[in-house]
Model the fold of this input.
Amino acid sequence: MQIVALEEDGRVVALEPQGFDLEVDLQDLLRDYPRLLLAPVPDYQGREIWTIGYEVPSEAGSIDLLCLDSTGEVWIVETKLAKNPEARKQVVGQVLGYAAAVAEWSVDRLESVAQSDLGESLRDHISVGLGVQEADELVIRAVERLRQGDITAVVVLDELNSVLQRSVEFIQQPRVV
Done:
């Protein structure tokens, strides 16, 4: 297992592995530093990401974290500790259920989630770094991507087990039909 961190200048550096006693500690880390989610993304530099919801209710259950990045991609983040038996393979079905539910959301629903968690509108929250017009365009682009099923579902674990790793690798393999 390798833990990474983003430095203030945008560089990714490796840190020593660290376990978590409580899942909420892992959630809080990602909520406060969502850029950690971008570390494995090849073109992360110059890309921004904002946490827009925490313990977000959906038709499929409570989503640990909901994020939006500067490309308009919505991220569903589910955290699990290795000691949790759901960290094996059930979590894959869990995040797919969340993605299917979120894909139906409108601009109003996305705004409502952000307002509830952030205490301000989604557009106001992200316009700080982008500007008002760009924020408006980004929110519209996010909903368009949701409608297309273009959602990033991420499972963040304190330790990866082989069963889950094989399941994720299988899902990511291209298939010829």
